[in-house]
Amino acid sequence: MIVIVASFDYGTYNELNSESSYWLTEEDKQQLNVLKNELMTTWVLGIGTLVVNLAIGSVLITLDRISKLLENIRDQK
């Protein structure tokens, strides 16, 4: 997730976003709109990746606990 979020061009975004909209050229305004869309996409992908990794980790931990439980049951017989 950190790599995905860090890949966004925050320098250009902050530079364009901090300037008054009166001073921005039409090209700068278009670039700012594109960067706003990219920022949202970046965060959605980052959070989605985090959720998927948490789900996979939960499944693996559950499978480990089940295998340990089955080994304990087998050893008790």
From the structure above, extract its key features.
77 residues
Mean pLDDT: 91
| Tally of contiguous helical segments | 3
Distance between the termini: 46 Å
Order of helices and strands: HHH
**Share of residues in helices:** over 70%
What does the radius of gyration come to?
A: 23 Å
What ranges have pLDDT less than 50 throughout 5 or more consecutive residues?
A: none
Could you give the count of β-strands?
A: 0
Structural class: mainly alpha
Strand content: under 5%
Based on Cα principal axes, name the global outline.
rod-shaped
Give a quick account of the main beta sheet: strands, pairing sense, barrel closure: none
Report on this model:
With 77 residues, the protein is mainly α. The protein contains 3 helices and no strands.
Summarize the structure.
This protein has helices at 2-6, 10-18, 26-76. With 77 residues, the protein is mainly α.
Itemize the secondary structure elements and their pairings:
Layout: H1 2-6, H2 10-18, H3 26-76
